[in-house]
Amino acid sequence: MLRENETRVSEFLLQGLPVPPERQGLCFILFLLMYLTTVLGNLLIILLIRMDSRLHTPMYFFLSVLAFDDLTYSSVTVPKMLMDMKTNHKSIPYAGCISQVFFLIIFGCFENFLLTVMAYDRYVAICQPLHYTTIMRQERCIALVTTSWILSFFYSLMHTLLLARVSFCDNITIPHFFCEIIPVLEISCSDISLNQQVMYIVGGISFYLPFFSILGTYIRIWATVLKNPSAKKFFKVLSTCGSHLLVVSLFYGTVFKVYFLSSSSSSNNKDIIASVMYMIVTPMLNPFIYSLRNRDIKQALYLLANRVKFCSQKT
To answer: How far is CA 66 from CA 39, 178, 259, 293, in A?
Structure first.
């Protein structure tokens, strides 16, 4: 009976960002601008790819899916964080916290799988260009994305169900600015050994398997290029894979820092800053990384601007 009462926690308290009170206003404006840039940038990428028929290719299809994932991923936590900074009311309902954990894991895991799929797409484009349209046909692209969603859903559901069985007592303050699964587990008063085992074993597999798949893919790409090296091939690889490699470095670098190199205390300020990187900064930078040096995106943006200008003049 006591255990039943222990699990009935109505809400949690979020510690928030380690920002002095006198800088709260400045940080609020900064993060609001970053979030608006994330939303507008990723929506623009999706809109351009949808409107321009020249961008209806596997690479841009995956890019539009990545933009959607970045948009939703940051939207799970950033609006709540901004509201907490503005109102200084940092509580979150129990159901809201569990839901936040679920969506964070599913979107984060999906990006992990999607980056692997995008690496495979680049491998086929460079190493098997003559068979690219046959291998990366529309049905296969949709199947790869759908499979990634299904795997991410069941992975997230498993962690969420295991978290829902955990009990909480007097300490309901989460040492973070959102419901990160590790800090939530650390404030529980029940046995979390099963959660930790699943996190380390299944989580490690779901992290390292895509990571080494991407690494192996790029080793094969460079091995293929170096068989008959030329400046033309070298610059083709850089132009085709450079943006993806930068996004992969940002994603895995920050995730590796938070989940595999973090200190024993999850309230460590460095870990929270690293969380800000993959939760806010990376989704904001991805549209710029893929568009600034991408001729097709620039042309689509130019055409869209001309359409808007023509319509405004016509009215």
So the answer is: 13, 22, 22, 18
What tokens appear for 134 in the block? 């046959």
Neighbours of 2 (CB within 10 A): 6
Q: Torsions phi, psi of 203, nearest 5?
A: -65, -40
Please compute, for residue 282, the number of CA atoms within 13 A of its CA located in the half-sphere on the CB side. Answer: 27
Instruction: Enumerate the H helices of 128-268 as residue ranges.
Output: 132-135, 138-164, 181-186, 193-227, 231-260
Task: Write down the residue that tokens 């809109």 correspond to.
Answer: 47
Token representation of residue 231: 């400046």
Q: Two tokens at 270?
A: 């460095």
Torsion over CA of 265, 267, 268 and 272, rounded to 10 degrees?
130
| CA separation for the pair 254, 251 (Å, rounded) | 6
3-state secondary structure of 37: helix
Question: Which two three-digit tokens encode residue 185?
Answer: 């587990």
Amino acid at 219: I
Global pTM?
Answer: 0.88
The edge-to-edge listing of strands for the beta sheet with 173-174 is 91-93, 11-14, 173-174
Written as six digits, the tokens of 281 are: 């900064």
Please work out, in degrees rounded to the nearest 5, the angle formed at the alpha carbon of residue 309 by the alpha carbons of 308 and 314. Answer: 100
267 phi, psi to nearest 5 deg: -90, 5
pLDDT in tens, the chain (315 residues): 444 445 467 889 888 888 887 888 898 999 999 999 999 999 999 998 998 888 899 999 999 999 999 999 999 999 999 998 888 778 899 999 999 999 999 999 999 999 999 999 999 988 888 899 999 999 999 999 999 999 999 999 999 999 998 888 878 888 888 998 988 998 888 889 999 899 888 888 888 899 999 999 999 888 888 877 776 777 767 777 888 888 888 888 877 777 666 654 444 566 777 788 888 888 998 888 887 667 778 787 777 777 776 676 666
CB 114 within 8 A of CB 80: no
